[in-house]
């Protein structure tokens, strides 16, 4: 099939070449009827845009990079899916990079993304504060951080669930349900969200006249099933009055439900358990898991909106911090 020009597309569509260009670039004013007419002609004629030429001409690739530490994690995957959908509707393609929480892999992906001349970058979670030093001084790359504090806050926008609020409400819920000795079960990864959840838990205890003791109120998992089961068993033997558990995420909470079943500890009669993330599996566990729900749609909308503003040159929003409220979902485990 021969290459067809924008001029020919315009003639077949009955509109100007300028209108066709606006439809292709999704930029400017045109009606939905006009857009559909132009797109129909493009499809019928097999028109293919030369994206390389377009990138060079406009200094835009219409692509966004997304760094995610673990694509198998329900929260991360859910946010990425919603971000991709929003960006696609706005004419951007996405390059999703699963770093596996590996610093060297993350650095390699950043270099690769810069080489592809991405227009923007979204960083989701991770251990350390994020810093991006662009190697090509001919094009700056705006970036947004989700659940991972940026090192230079005045250069970007930080979007996060209100992890402190969620943990505070989780701890208070346990106490309101009659728990006398609540504990928090953490993982051994450093992250700003984990720190906020720990602070929220500790402050809820303080508000209710409990003095937080890390030896009595905190258990760390290393995310190894056999080791974690033994750690929980030994902890409960040493602190035999523990009657409530707040797990820092639902994966840990669901494992705990299994371990408690093996230990013949009845939930919620003898032990109340609450998680964080509201993963679908929690609705089907036995008993069904009480959890903290994160508004992934709102997070995705705020992150993409802010990034596109930065791409368009709006520097007034740099330094903004947006905390998205969370919601306690009460189920049978408490």
Automatic annotation (TrEMBL):
InterPro entries: HTH_LacI, LacI/GalR-like_sensor, Lambda_DNA-bd_dom_sf, Peripla_BP_I. The keyword Transcription applies. Residues 4-58 form the HTH lacI-type domain. Transmembrane segments: none annotated. GO terms for molecular function: DNA binding. SUPFAM superfamilies: lambda repressor-like DNA-binding domains, Periplasmic binding protein-like I. Keywords: DNA-binding, Repressor, Transcription, Transcription regulation. It holds the Pfam family Peripla_BP_3. This is LacI family DNA-binding transcriptional regulator. It comes from Candidatus Enterococcus moelleringii. The lineage of its organism: Bacteria, Bacillati, Bacillota, Bacilli, Lactobacillales.
């Amino acid at each position: 099939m021969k290459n067809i020009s924008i001029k020919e597309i315009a003639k077949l569509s009955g509109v100007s070449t300028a209108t066709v260009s606006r439809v292709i670039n999704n930029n400017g004013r045109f009606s939905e009827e006009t857009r559909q007419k132009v797109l129909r002609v493009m499809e019928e004629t097999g028109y293919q845009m030369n994206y390389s030429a377009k990138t060079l001409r406009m200094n835009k690739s219409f692509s966004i990079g997304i760094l995610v530490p673990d694509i198998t994690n329900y929260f991360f995957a859910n946010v990425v899916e919603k971000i991709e959908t929003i960006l696609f509707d706005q004419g951007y393609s996405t390059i999703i990079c699963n770093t596996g929480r590996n610093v060297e892999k993350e650095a390699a992906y950043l270099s690769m993304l810069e080489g592809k001349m991405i227009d923007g970058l979204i960083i989701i979670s991770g251990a350390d504060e994020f810093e991006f030093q662009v190697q090509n001084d001919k094009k700056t790359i705006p970036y947004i951080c989700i659940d991972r504090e940026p090192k230079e806050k005045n250069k970007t926008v930080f979007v996060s669930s209100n992890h402190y609020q969620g943990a505070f409400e989780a701890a208070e819920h346990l106490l309101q349900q009659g728990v006398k000795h609540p504990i928090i079960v953490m993982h051994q990864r450093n992250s700003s969200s984990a720190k906020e959840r720990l602070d929220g838990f500790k402050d809820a205890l303080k508000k209710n006249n409990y003095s937080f003791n890390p030896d009595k109120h905190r258990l760390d998992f290393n995310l190894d099933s056999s080791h974690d089961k033994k750690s929980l068993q030994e902890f409960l033997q040493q602190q035999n009055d523990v009657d409530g558990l707040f797990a820092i995420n639902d994966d840990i909470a669901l494992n705990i439900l299994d371990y408690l079943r093996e230990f013949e500890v009845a939930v919620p009669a003898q032990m109340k358990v609450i998680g964080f993330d509201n993963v679908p599996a929690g609705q089907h566990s036995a008993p069904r898991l009480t959890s903290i729900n994160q508004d992934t749609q709102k997070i995705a909308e705020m992150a993409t909106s802010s990034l596109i503003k930065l791409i368009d040159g709006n520097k007034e929003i740099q330094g903004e911090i947006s905390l998205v409220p969370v919601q306690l979902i009460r189920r049978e485990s408490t």
